[in-house]
Amino acid sequence: MSDRIVFEDVSKFYGEILGVNRVNLSIPPGITSLVGPNGSGKTTLMNLMTGLVRPTRGRIQVLGYRTDDPENLFKILGYSTQFDAFPKGLTGFQFIYSYLRLAGRDDQSAEQLAWRVIERVNLVDAAKRNIAGYSKGMRQRIRLAQALAHDPKVLVLDEPLNGLDPLARSEMIALFRATAAQGCYVIISSHILHEVDVISDQVILLSNGYVVAEGQIATVRGEIQEHPTQILIRCTQPRELAAKMLTDEHTIEVCIHKDERGLLLKTRDADGFYLALNQLALNGIDIESIAPADDDVLSVYEYLIGNEEAVR
Questions:
Q1: Is there a contact between 254 and 276 (Cβ–Cβ < 8 Å)?
Q2: How do strand 57-62 and strand 30-35 relate by DSSP bridges?
Q3: Distance of CA 16 to the CA centre of its chain
């Protein structure tokens, strides 16, 4: 499909070492996060996507372009690796300008595009300074500027938030969202799971070189039928409600929240539980709010990885 990033039965082995195995993906526009610990296959998947390594087997296409056709692929793709290395002696502007010149832009066009993307990542004041004097966050942003400089349709970012302070993280996330809002395919790898919920339109969960789940996190979570749902209930009478819920057939476990202003409940039948809770609310229990307590990447990932390890 020319409007997707497609992996068809893709495997990559480094000798006898597994990079990724039997990957089948169809990645839509928006922000997609590759999630997993170090060694799970995130960087290998990105290097395959960008043509820096070739698959041992299988086929990859990026918006209809082959990954073994770099001259055409990199016209529509920008890649920022996790490696923090730059040519010696270059200013931020020179770094972006020289890249655009190497990409075939003429002098005037390269200069205009360089200043435009430098402004976009909020580095105009530092553009004429040597990159060697940049902070960690500034170096992250100038690398991102290089990946964005030629206005790619696909932006691949390996651990772009690693080592950034909260303000720099917030600025980067806002830039990712703005880029995706313009129709770009933004692929981000991360092992900081709680941030993925804030950033992503969809997630791909990896473990030991395998894709263990993909899709919107709520969808992934909803497909795990055997995994108990944990629900946080805020109410004025938590102990009374806990006693009543323990008698309900849908309840597995109940505990009072540590702040004494609600309770945490586990159930394998969320729909049945909500119906039972509605009846309790009608019978005089004052319920302030109800929310899933584990509908996030971390809980789903830990559950899935636990299952994977048990299988292996």
A1: no
A2: unpaired
A3: 28
DSSP 37: -
- Residue owning tokens 């994977």: 308
Of 14, 37, 18, nearest to 205 (Cα)?
37
**Average pLDDT of each block of 10 consecutive residues along the chain (312 residues)?**
89 93 94 86 94 96 94 94 86 96 92 96 95 89 93 93 75 89 92 70 88 76 60 83 80 84 80 71 69 59 52 33
How many angstroms separate the CA atoms of 311 and 143, rounded? Answer: 40
As a whole number of angstroms, the distance between CA 150 and CA 44 comes to 24
First to last CA, the chain: 33
DSSP 259-299: TSSEEEEEES-HHHHHHHHHHHHHTT--EEEEEESS-SHHH
Only one residue has tokens 């890649």, namely 79
Chain position carrying tokens 């945490």: 264
- Within 8 A by CB and 6+ apart from 86, the residues are 95, 131, 132, 139, 142
